[in-house]
Amino acid sequence: MNPEAIRIIVTGGTFDKHYDEIKGELTFTETHVPEVLKRARVSVPVQVELNQLIDSLYMQEANRQSVLDACKRAPERHIIITHGTDTMAETAKLIGSARLDKTIVLTGAMIPYKILDSDALFNFGAAFAAVQLLPAGVYISMNGRIFDWNRVRKNKTLGVFEEIQE
Amino acid sequence: MNPEAIRIIVTGGTFDKHYDEIKGELTFTETHVPEVLKRARVSVPVQVELNQLIDSLYMQEANRQSVLDACKRAPERHIIITHGTDTMAETAKLIGSARLDKTIVLTGAMIPYKILDSDALFNFGAAFAAVQLLPAGVYISMNGRIFDWNRVRKNKTLGVFEEIQE
Amino acid sequence: MNPEAIRIIVTGGTFDKHYDEIKGELTFTETHVPEVLKRARVSVPVQVELNQLIDSLYMQEANRQSVLDACKRAPERHIIITHGTDTMAETAKLIGSARLDKTIVLTGAMIPYKILDSDALFNFGAAFAAVQLLPAGVYISMNGRIFDWNRVRKNKTLGVFEEIQE
Amino acid sequence: MNPEAIRIIVTGGTFDKHYDEIKGELTFTETHVPEVLKRARVSVPVQVELNQLIDSLYMQEANRQSVLDACKRAPERHIIITHGTDTMAETAKLIGSARLDKTIVLTGAMIPYKILDSDALFNFGAAFAAVQLLPAGVYISMNGRIFDWNRVRKNKTLGVFEEIQE
Q1: Counting CB atoms within 10 angstroms of each CB, which of A130, B89, B122, C156 has the fewest?
Q2: What is the three-class DSSP state of C65?
Q3: What proportion of chain D, given as a percentage, has pLDDT over 90?
Q4: Do residues D78 and D6 touch, judged by C-beta distance below 8 A?
């Protein structure tokens, strides 16, 4: 089981939110993914691609298309997408419908990586294993579960992802 | 893909080491696994079993046998074992040789969960996804990789796990 | 130097901001001051009084008056006020003008206590020592400095407090 | 109150202990004081002097003498010494007996800075304010209190500093 390279396509989301102490609000400045990879001591070859840094509530169709294009362009067969949770399922649907011959796992965080008690590192670890073990397809990895792209939604009241009937 | 229950067998290791401010050294008091599960917001049914809290350098054959017995006894088919890294491969060999019809993933940490920059949460997340996706067998999940029990060792100079020829 | 009791009047501010993962924004739920006191292992008698939990940008005159009233009412001669930084100097002016015979130190944080790299704990420690050592009067303790209430402003561009001529 | 420069003499202690993931133990590699100063956003001029990085249990007379020499040599009148807690009171006695015309505050931590729930940042903040407010003399700032050098000991059973009769 020689590890294949993994491409990580960064889109922002809560995972990468950062506290701007001058503005007094959460914004984006850069991605924490390289820091996470170092901290996790991963020994799998990884390419990090900064696609965008955006709150997924503000994603337009062009934003989602840009993620899909990045997936198509990627030479790697294993892709992780870090994404805001609010519209993660929508982006998964767009990419899933494209039926690429790649394993693509979307993940994110309910609490920013830089806040104590963040779930970001756990979710990223789960996605990192999942992308290496799943067959080609598009998946969401959140709450310790793996969901198919066409059977998942975020329950915004509870703040958890859940399975839906196709 | 309805999630099956996962049993988590805790044995201690660096993952659970805690700073004792009176003694001024790292010791064990309790496991951080329940806190990790809450933080990760997992929605998969989980049973946490405290088997032992020990530095794996001090594990005797009886300690390893106790872990194997816990695996045999477990009604769940998916088992995660948190374990010290120094002899994780030895315990994996003992359990692997038993050829149980279960998926068993050992994981741990190079830096304790309670220290900033710990890899514990990433490793646990990776093991959590891996145990749900792998066929029956015994594996080590460290450094973002999945290793078969009979082809893995810890490189103690570099502090990473690596594959060996069987 | 037997330690006199200190009253801590909590008003919220960035210090106590908390990430609400359902709303996806920073809000208030409770104060972190009791947790901070435990973590700091203080052996000085302390009374924590929750006056309000508010972003100081939204403080009205009634809010500031409520803080002044709490200072007047307090039986202790040593008072720390945790406060948002944006209008900390205004509240200091109101209380300073009242010329109470007490030592009152306002402090806060540029980055919430629950975010990695927060300055909250340092600022609180500095205020804790300052309130025990200063003569009666009203002060702001931020950026490792002690400012008189009538000679301080927040430089909102740089995010630091600075001295002004009276 | 224009801020005078502060010299920070680093000697190590629990404050600066670091987890060595290869050896699996707490050791010293460098001091965290510059990181702490940045995080605290101090606007007081500061000189950091690395005197030694040692567990204070292993300090010999020469180690303590070296700290005293650094205090004598320092052009600043305000000095903070970061020090292990176990023999902090002994070093304070040596320096206190020298009757230098400077304000010198020793502080440290019960839990290393890099461990969650560390008291290091609070203690350092308290020392930072105290050194600017106290008259010439030698003091220990721990547990939110300020102790005179000749009336303090560490209660090793409880892990707190306490006043003794001279």
Answers
A1: C156
A2: helix
A3: 97
A4: yes
Q: Is A21 helix (H, G, I), strand (E, B) or coil?
A: coil
**CB pair distance less than 8 Å for D114 and B110:** no
Residues 6 or more apart in contact with residue C121 via CB below 8 angstroms: C36, C39, C40, C113, D121, D122, D125
pLDDT in tens, B80-95: 999 999 999 999 999 9
Size of chain D in residues: 166
> Above 90 in pLDDT, residue D27?
yes
What pLDDT is recorded for position A3?
87
User: Mutate which of D21, D22, D39 to test chain B, going by most B C-beta atoms within 10 A?
Assistant: D21
CB pairs under 8 A between B and D: 41
Nearest to C115 among A19, A24, A57 (CB): A19
Please report how the helices B61-73 and B88-97 are oriented relative to each other, as an axis angle in degrees rounded to 10: 50
The rounded distance, in Å, linking the Cα atoms of D46 and D78 is: 10
Query: Residue B136 and residue D21: Cα distance in Å, rounded?
Result: 31
Structure tokens at B58: 């001090």
CB contact under 8 A, D116 and B115: yes
Distance, in Å, from the CA atom of B161 to the CA atom of A40, rounded to the nearest integer, reads 12
Q: Does D54 touch chain B (CB under 8 A)?
A: no
- The answer to whether residues B159 and D21 touch, using CB atoms and an 8 Å cutoff, is yes
> Is there a contact between A122 and B39 if contact means CB atoms under 8 Å apart?
yes
Of the partner residues C124, C143, C147, the one whose CB lies closest to the CB of residue D42: C143
D159 touches chain B (CB under 8 A): yes
Which of these, B107, B145, B120, B113, lies nearest to A128 by C-alpha position?
B145
Residue C39 amino acid letter: R
Which residues numbered 123-142 in B keep a CB inside 8 Å of some CB on A? Answer: 123-130, 132-134, 141
| Strands B152-155 vs B160-163: parallel, antiparallel or unpaired | antiparallel
* Average pLDDT over all residues of chain B: 97
DSSP β-bridge partners for residue B160: B155
Nearest CA in chain D to B158: D22
Residues A76-104, buried b or exposed e (16+ Cβ, 10 A)? bbbbbbbbbbbbbbbbbbbbbeeebebbb
Strand partners for D82: D10, D107
Complex ipTM, two decimals? 0.97
CB distance from D23 to chain B under 8 Å?
Answer: no
Contact C114 A110 (CB under 8 A): no
Q: Do A122 and B124 touch (CB under 8 A)?
A: yes
Beta-strand ranges (E) seen in D32-117 are 46-54, 78-82, 103-107
b/e A11-24 (16+ beta carbons within 10 angstroms → b): bbbbbbbbbebeeb
What is the pLDDT averaged over residues B126-148? 98
Which amino acid is located at B130 in the chain?
A: A
Residue A158: CB partners within 8 Å, gap ≥ 6? Answer: none
> Cα–Cα distance between C44 and C6 in angstroms, integer?
7
Residues of C in contact with D44 (CB under 8 A): 143-145
Cβ of B23 under 8 Å from any chain D Cβ? no
Which pLDDT score is estimated for A165?
78
